[in-house]
Every structure is written in structure tokens, then in C-alpha cells.
Amino acid sequence: MRLIKYSHSCVRIEGDAVLVIDPGAFTERAALDGVDAVLITHEHMDHLDAEALADALGKRPTVRVFTHAAVLDKLEPLAGAVTAVASGEEFTAAGFNVKAFGGWHAEIHPDVPRVPNLGFLVNDSLYHPGDSFDVPTGATVDTLFVPISAPWLKLSESVEFVRKVAPRRAFALHDALLSDAGYAVTDANMSRLSGTEYARLAPGQSADLP
Hints:
The protein has 3 helices and 14 strands.
């Protein structure tokens, strides 16, 4: 199997089938080419592009989408293809085993209402937390995607998240908001402080999965 990182928070996993997580408005449409199932962590536009999903289903009517129940009204035209899942639930998406963790988006500001957010552990190996630092309790994570830039985080939180999860390796996530200077500073600090093998994949870059 292999993973391909697309812009911002989108991760594509390819094996016997194709699973895509969080293809949002900042994501290249190519991320959904030939997709079999999609996981959406939460409703924000940088993680959910309903029009792109509709186009994907138009090409492949068998595509299935899995997300929190709170997101269903955002995908009403695709209702027949969408399944609601909850934190603590385990399910199969395109042949991949998936476990949902967490429950809420990290706080942006006390005046900004929080929305439900799910982290997804795929094949007991790869963890995508969405917009949260919720740790997948009880899981042994090989590959962790760690958010590195957002209105709701600071670098110390990203570092501590990696340390708590203790994966074999960590890749940058939620990374479209930084400048080249920001990438340089953030990558240097994450590499030095996270306690694991850390890298930032450019859009379209891939890595092998166990």
C-alpha cells in the first residue's frame, strides 16, 4: 500500500482500493480520481468540498462517504452515498478497517462555536486527526499526520501531540496556510522536538505504508 499527500489536509491511501480523507476546497480534484470511499473528519470547507464529492460520485456512483452525523446536512444531495459514524465506532470503508476517535474540533476562540470532528485510524496503522489533537487511545500508530498550522494551534501543541501518540513517523498535515519561511521554521522545530521521524510531503508526494 501507499499514501499520497495532497494539499492541506487531504490524504489518499491506495491498496486494492482507494480511500481518501478530507478532500477540501484547498485540495486538488485529482485526489478523488478512481476513489472508492471518502472519510470526512468535519464540516469546514478546507476538509469538505461537497461539489468535488458530487463530481466524484457522478463518475463513480459506487463511491461511499463516511462522516459524523453533524455533517449529513452539508451532503444532503448525496444522502444515499453517505453513512454517519460516531467516535468509538469501527467500520469498513473500501475494504480498509477504520476506527473513529475524538469528537470535537479544537477550539479556535471561545466566541467561535466548535463543531464535531472525528479522527480516523486506518488499518490500525495510519492516523488522521482532522482538526484536533485527540489521541487514539489504545492504538499503536505507525504513521501519524500532525496538523502544523491553523488558527486553533500553536507549535508546542503539535510537538506534544506527536510525543503522546509516539508513532514511528509523522507527516505534516493542515499545512497550506504557511509561507516558505513558515515551513522552514516549523519543519526545523518539528524535526528537532517531536521525538520521531518527521517530514512534510509536498502535494502529490507519496510514501509506502506497511
